[in-house]
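FAQ

Q: What does a record look like?
A: Structure on top, sequence underneath. For example:
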């Protein structure tokens, strides 16, 4: 796994070690990974975001949080972190806590990546990241209604009941076939998605030497690479 992607492998291994220490020292709670209740005031997302930031610093990156990344038309996104080595943009990282890990991984995170693929470097002079990492937080275990709010569904919806059995397995099906959620999603940006039939196709269709996309699920067990499937595997948290 990741034999030819040393910056990603090194970053994920270091992040796993820091998360393990933070869990043992109770700097972060295990509930951050299995409930949305700790995220309403950004407690969980800020705490884990700080660990991602410090991981970049420890590896010698210049870490730039929430900087604008511009597209051809002047539009932009604001990733959580840009990580530089000298003038080279090695890692662009977006992190979603439990209550951001839903269809917005498609309508926001994947949307921004698909737009970045359209950048004309001859016109813009934009520095593209070597790796584009989307890290999210979806448990495989069943969740209780009182502990898991949903962006996409009301708790009375049949889809919510299916999702609550395993948020991770549910949204992996959405990643692989975004059309399954189109009619129930109160979202935007879908016009960019259908031409990329699923996340894995987009991950593996990029033949550039830069901007390789990884979709990575964060749990108390480890960092699981969901996509691209050719790099499936788990970086364990001790």
């Amino acid at each position: 796994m990741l034999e030819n992607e040393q910056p990603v492998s090194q970053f994920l291994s270091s992040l796993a070690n820091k998360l393990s220490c933070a869990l043992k020292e109770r700097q972060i709670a295990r509930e951050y990974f299995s409930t949305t209740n700790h995220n309403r005031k950004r407690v969980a997302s800020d705490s884990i975001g700080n660990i991602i930031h410090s991981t970049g610093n420890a590896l010698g990156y210049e870490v730039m949080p929430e900087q604008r990344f511009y597209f051809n038309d002047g539009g932009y996104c604001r990733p959580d972190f840009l990580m530089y080595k000298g003038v080279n943009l090695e890692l662009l990282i977006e992190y979603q806590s439990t209550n951001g890990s839903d269809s917005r991984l498609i309508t926001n995170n994947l949307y921004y990546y698909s737009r970045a693929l359209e950048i004309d470097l001859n016109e813009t002079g934009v520095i593209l990241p070597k790796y584009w990492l989307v890290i999210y937080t979806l448990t495989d275990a069943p969740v209780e209604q009182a502990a898991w709010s949903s962006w996409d569904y009301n708790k009375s919806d049949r889809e919510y009941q299916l999702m609550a059995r395993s948020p991770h397995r549910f949204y992996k099906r959405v990643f692989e076939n975004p059309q399954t959620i189109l009619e129930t999603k109160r979202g935007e940006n879908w016009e960019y998605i259908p031409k990329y039939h699923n996340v894995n196709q987009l991950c593996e269709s990029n033949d550039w030497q830069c901007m390789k996309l990884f979709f990575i699920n964060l749990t108390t067990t480890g960092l699981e690479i969901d996509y691209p499937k050719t790099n499936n595997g788990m970086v364990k948290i001790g």
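Q: Is there anything notable about this one?
A: Residues 6-236 form one domain.
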